[in-house]
Amino acid sequence: MIHFYHVHQSYQRNILALKDISFDCLRGEFVFLTGASGAGKTTLLKLIIREEIPLQGQILVNGQNVSSIPVNKIPRLRRAIGVVFQDFKLIRGKTVFENVTFVLKTLGIDLKERRKRAYHVLKQVGLQHKTNAYPLELSGGEQQRVAVARAIVNDPVLLLADEPTGNLDPDMAVEIMNLFSKINRRGTTVLVATHDREMIRRMGKRVITLDKGQLIHDTGSQMQIEET
Amino acid sequence: MLRYLIFAVWEAAISLWRSRVLNLLAVGTIMFAMFILGSFVLVGINLQKITVNWRDQIQFNVFLADDIDQSQIEAVRGTIEGSMLVKSAQFISKHRALELFGQDFPTYQTTVNALEKNPFPASFQVSLIRGTERAQFDELRVVILSREGVEEVYYDEEIFKRLDFFIRLIRLAGWFFGSIMVTSSIFSISNVLKLTFFTRREEVDIMKLVGASRAYIRGPFIVEGILIGLLGSLLGVSLVYLGHLLLQTYVADAEPFLMASLEPVFLPMSWVFILVLAGSLSGFLGSLFSLHQFLEEHISYQ
Predict the structure, then answer these.
(1) All residues at 6 or more sequence positions from B193 whose CB lies less than 8 Å from its CB, including other chains
(2) Domain boundary, last residue among B123, B155, B187
(3) Residues of chain A neighbouring B216 (CB-CB closer than 8 A)
(4) Are B219 and B268 within one domain?
(5) Residue A103 with chain B: CB contacts under 8 Å
(6) Cβ contact (<8 Å) for A71 and B203?
(7) CATH no. for residue B90?
(8) In a domain, B234, yes or no
(9) Per-residue pLDDT of chain B (302 residues; tens, 9 = 90+)
(10) Residue-range definition of the domain harbouring residue B139
(11) Number of domains into which chain B is organized
(12) Cβ-Cβ contacts under 8 Å, B210 against chain A
């Protein structure tokens, strides 16, 4: 599903945000990406959705080379990926329902179907009673759950989450992780960037550790181990 | 496609309402531009109507040779009356011409009576139909001059020249002011929309990140520009209509001899359509310019 081949990324001359990153992430895998702040987790996620272009190296996502993908193909790539952003990225002028279903609307899905899917995902994150609220009327945790709902509403093949439990209380954080596990069991590949070690330990999934832009540890694909 | 259009119009309408103060400025700008342009066209059309009335009164004379016989006179009459441009033609014989001179200038009556020979030629006094062009008249003149017994085709060229110049001036000024107003309104809309885009750049960024295509991002902005142009031009044309009603009231109350030939007419539907289309097109171009710049600077996919 995700293949990184000797990827380098830099924001300033001589300061590399990512150094020679290579790893494979199989379809249907659940992977934690961890490391201290500034390790390069968010940069790596940005490269996957082609928010940034790598300085060097190749990145394949869902069979597409995102380093050289034509600009007009980027929206389609992103619609196949659900992303929970660290800062939620909710549109303030739109209601919870509108935020969650915006992509569905651009895909031409009718209102009835949008309502059905929105109710379904909002129920999963426990916000079915907040459909008409605006993001600024919600708490940080609620906004994060709306972001999760938006990321999964289109049944993505790949789900990326950047610190998805950072603003949640421990119970809700566990619930969200259980939701990710459930989505993963349906075949969606999940990549979660977090520095919540307790959560990583509790989930018992593959962990890729970054430090100062370098991949310093990879527990390896559990799926491959199981197959072996 | 229909769904996309509904989506774009709906999103544009929401955005128009959300940034209504800013958008009112853009609507006001295009309204003002279309009001000025429409008023100019209105004045032009009414002035043209007056000049057409003047043209209607233009006559020319076909002077005949002294030795012309009756059959030749009839041939000339046939040529004149056979022309589509001629409204009426009156034959004035040598004798009638002398009489008329005596009536018009009684003080010279004795001098005229003392003449041994009538010096006035026979002639046709010809009136042209409304709106005859100079070139058409020239063609007719050549045909008449080619007839035997015709000595001269006389007309007051200055009047023609002045009218032509006046009408050309009206048209030229119309194009000049029209171009300036339309160009300035495009830039006004472009700048106002740029501000709108700027206030929504975060939203656009999010749309982009969750996979909205460029068409879905651009569409509502473009429609918003068109709606601003459409709304502004409709209001502008309405203001012109209001001005027309006021002018009508003023003319109705004015002294009849001053405004005898002026019954103000409103813009023909074709012009209303052109103004509304020009307004919408200005909105479209304005949004396209600013969007292009905005996309380059803020929502590039790179």
Answers:
(1) B26, B221, B224, B225, B228, B286, B287, B290, B291
(2) B155
(3) 106
(4) yes
(5) 210-212
(6) no
(7) 3.30.70.3040
(8) yes
(9) 777 777 778 878 887 887 788 788 888 888 888 888 888 788 777 776 766 666 566 678 899 998 888 999 999 999 999 988 888 889 999 889 888 888 888 888 788 778 788 888 999 998 888 777 778 888 888 999 898 889 888 876 676 677 667 767 877 877 787 778 778 777 877 787 777 777 777 778 788 888 887 777 888 888 888 998 899 999 999 999 999 988 888 877 765 544 445 678 888 899 899 989 988 988 888 888 887 777 666 554 44
(10) 59-155
(11) 2
(12) 78-79, 83, 89, 102-103, 150
Instruction: For residue B5, give how far its alpha carbon lies from the nearest alpha carbon of chain A (Å).
Output: 11
| Residue B116 domain-assigned (yes or no) | yes
B130 with B202, same domain: the answer is: no
Q: A88 in helix, strand or coil?
A: coil
Residues B116 and B236 reside in one and the same domain: no
A106: nearest CB among B18, B205, B212:
B212
CA–CA dist A8, B21 (Å, integer): 47
Tell me which residue has tokens 């950072």.
A166
How far apart are the C-alpha atoms of A106 and B213, rounded to whole Å?
8
Same domain, B80 and B133: yes
Both B67 and B45 in a single domain? no
What is the edge-to-edge ordering of all strands in the sheet holding A158-162?
A: A64-65, A56-61, A2-12, A15-25, A214-218, A206-211, A30-34, A189-193, A158-162, A81-84
pTM of the complete model beyond 0.95: no
Residue B302 lies in a domain: no
**Which of A74, A91, A93 comes nearest B301 by C-beta?**
A74
Instruction: Name the minimum distance, in Å, from the CA of A85 to any CA of chain B.
Output: 10
What is residue B121's DSSP assignment? P
Distance from CA of A106 to the nearest CA of B (A): 6
Tell which of A91, A104, A146 to mutate to test the B interface (max B CBs under 10 Å).
A91
Q: Does B245 touch chain A (CB under 8 A)?
A: no
Nearest-CB residue to A78 (from B4, B202, B209): B209
